[in-house]
Amino acid sequence: MDGIIDLPDHVSEVIFSYLSLHDLRNCSLVCKRWYEFLNNENNDVWRLHCIRKLAEEALKSDLLSSVPTYKAKLRAFHHAWNPNDCSRNIFIKPNGFTLHRNPVAQSTDATRGKIGFRHGRHAWEVIWEGPLGTVAVIGIATKDSPLQCHGYVALLGADDQSWGWNLVDNHLLHNGDAQGNYPLLNNAPKYQVGERIRVILDCDDNTLSFEKNYEFLGVAFRGLPDKKLYPTVSAVYGNTEVSMVYLGPPLDG
Questions:
Q1: DSSP bridge partners of 154
Q2: Residue 215's closest CA among 194, 241, 189?
Q3: Dihedral, CA atoms, 203, 205, 211, 216, nearest 10 degrees?
Q4: In 10 A of CB 39, how many CB atoms?
Q5: Contact 230, 122 (CB under 8 A)
Q6: Using 50, 70 and 90 to split pLDDT, how confident is the model at 20?
Q7: Is Lyase given among the entry's keywords (predicted)?
Q8: Residue 38: helix, strand or coil by DSSP?
């Protein structure tokens, strides 16, 4: 066993690069040396996993600029939009992070992330990269919230299983009702296409908040249920695109 633990770093990197993420987590618990080795988020283990999993387009673009390490990029990929949990009018682009809504008339369409959260604090960025249309909502939903409906409506926030912020009119939405304006600023500026919105879900405090341009906009929703909650958006505009990048625990301050 000591011989395996004491292998040179470049040999360990090659071996570890072929293990699953679950196996790598187990390896990090074996000894201090392996823990420190695998805790280096920019070593060749994570670089090779990124090359195998992520599209070259995503690795070379500015989309992942908020997650600078290879391990963080890999984590973001495993939290990205779920191609098996979206409206039939939406597909996930080859980069793995961006959804595309097909130009289908009289339909509102939504997508959830691959992983939901019930514990801890989590942050992710949403970038609306096409026209908003009449309704463009970002937020969270449980697995019980619908992902498609007829007409152009605020689907996210239309029931008691989803909570959303409509970027078009700056209204908060839940259970089919407008919950007031957001953010609580006089003449709050409207969202500009391409801006990064940071979504902050605090499952310990049961709150949902947002940031824009590194400015905290305040708590949007309180009293969230003790259920698994998923990053979600709903869109109406044909050919619009929305990207989501998971960041991990939010940095206070």
A1: none
A2: 189
A3: -160
A4: 10
A5: no
A6: confident
A7: no
A8: helix
Token pair listed for 137: 């909502």
Residues 225, 44 contacting (CB under 8 angstroms): no
Residue that has been written with the tokens 């990929």 in this structure: 77
Query: How many other C-beta atoms lie within 10 A of the C-beta of residue 94?
Result: 11
Which residue in the block uniquely carries the two structure tokens 């391409």? 194
Q: State both tokens at 76.
A: 């973001």
> What is the rounded distance in angstroms from the CA atom of residue 1 to the CA atom of residue 27?
13
User: In terms of C-beta density within 10 A (0-12 exposed, 13-18 middle, 19 or more buried), how is residue 62 classed?
Assistant: exposed
CA-nearest of 249, 248, 241 to 95 is 241
Q: Are 97 and 223 in contact (CB under 8 A)?
A: no
Is 164 within 8 Å of 120 (Cβ atoms)?
no
- As a whole number of angstroms, the distance between CA 52 and CA 47 comes to 9
Strands 136-141 and 162-166, sheet pairing? antiparallel
What DSSP character marks residue 186? T
Q: State percent of the chain over pLDDT 70.
A: 96
- pTM for this structure? 0.89
- What average pLDDT is seen over the chain? 91
